[in-house]
Amino acid sequence: MIKKAVITAAGKGTRQYPATNSIQKELFPLVDRDGITKPVIQIIAEQVVRAGIDEIAIIVNPGEERQFKSHFKSLSENEKSSFTNKKWGLRQSEMLAHLENSITYLYQEQQEGYGHAVNCAADWVGDEPFLLLLGDHLYVSQTDVSCVQQVIEGYKLFKKSIYAVKQTPAELLYLFGTVAGEQIPESPNAYQLNKIVEKPQVAYARENLAIEGLPADMFLTFFGMHVLSTKIFEILQNHIKNNVRQNGEIQLTTAQAELCAAEGAVGLEIQGERLDMGTPLGLLETQLALALNGVFEHDIKLAFNRLQSKN
Questions:
Q1: Helix, strand or coil, per DSSP, at residue 89
Q2: CA-CA-CA-CA torsion for 143, 147, 150, 152, nearest 10 degrees?
Q3: Which of 55, 71, 183, 292 suits a disulfide with 4, CB 3.0-4.6 Å?
Q4: What is the average per-residue pLDDT within 210-220?
Q5: 72: exposed, middle or buried (C-beta count within 10 Å: 0-12, 13-18, 19+)?
């Protein structure tokens, strides 16, 4: 039912300067859970493809698609000779070839906010609901079902826009869009949403965004992925036309609040972790989370024990 995915990757990466002078932050390498070193954007794209979506748009600044294209390509016949005894490398080459054929590059000409970036995909998406992800976030499931698949299954069940959410303590609300609503009785991890606020003050959240059943000072905030109906583009285009901005930018959260009011939306609590590698500390946390959930889990724990014994 969900055939297309949009991944935004047009940010300047200022929080990772000066490394981003030479490489897009979405191409920073990480050791994935399978033990293979990959750029962040590939790990995200693989999760999308494994969920059954074979059309992916990556939104970039004009000219920066060259960096992505140089990565998403298979080995040449000459290069394959170096991987004769490395079957994992040949499998990766096949995956890269598949992704190369799946990816379309769209351009954000001006940096005018996340909502503006998403709207750049309007013509490509067409008239069907689509999956939206951030190019500098990784999503590590705590179950056998990937975070992407959890969101898609939520859309199949509720047939309306799905905003993936995560329980978050009050002191971190300044980082996230925050939602409130009524728990859906037959689905304890799903909420019929009625309020959406971008990075609220704690006092406001305690007064207006508390949800019955959650622990004290815990709130539901955006997880970083959504399934959206195409009405989101109608709303965003209206915001662009009428210069509706927050903090000087065209915000997606503002449009999502309008979408929720117009059509309804479900907040789906995801069993997984969101990892923002767009900051130096976030990059370290992301790599650590992958290591502790992958083939190097035992080795990493041994290394930690050795370090602790030395201290």
A1: helix
A2: -160
A3: 55
A4: 94
A5: buried
Query: Is residue 272 within 8 Å of residue 141, measured between CB atoms?
Result: yes
Token look-up 């990466």 returns 13
**Are the C-beta atoms of 283 and 138 separated by less than 8 Å?**
no
Take residue 284 and report the two structure tokens written for it.
Answer: 């370290």
Q: Decide if pLDDT at 208 tops 80.
A: yes
Amino acid in the structure at residue 176: F
User: Which H helix or E strand runs over 168?
Assistant: strand 161-169
Q: In whole angstroms, give the CA distance from residue 179 to residue 167.
A: 10
Q: Count CB atoms within 10 A of the CB of residue 114.
A: 18
For 152, residues 6+ apart whose C-beta sits below 8 A from its C-beta are 1, 2, 51, 52, 131, 227
Burial class (CB in 10 A: 0-12, 13-18, 19+), 214: middle
DSSP state of 279: S
Q: Omega before 200 cis (within 30°)? A: no
Going by the DSSP 8-state scheme, the letter that residue 196 receives in this structure is E
> For residue 243, what are the β-bridge partners?
none
pTM of the full structure: 0.92
Tens of pLDDT along 91-109? 999 999 999 999 999 999 9
Length of the chain: 311
**Do 262 and 236 contact (CB within 8 A), yes or no?**
no
Tens-digit pLDDT profile for residues 229-279: 999 999 999 999 999 998 889 999 999 999 999 999 999 999 999 999 989
Which among 243, 235, 189 is positioned nearest to 211, based on CA atoms? 189
| pLDDT digits 0-9 by tens, 284-297 | 999 999 988 887 77
In the chain, the amino acid numbered 134 is L
Backbone phi, then psi, for 63, in 5-degree steps? Answer: 95, -25
Give me the residues paired with residue 58 across strands: 7, 105
Question: Measured between alpha carbons, how far is 55 from 287 in angstroms, rounded to an integer?
Answer: 27
Taking only the tens place, the pLDDT of each residue in 254-264 is 999 999 999 99
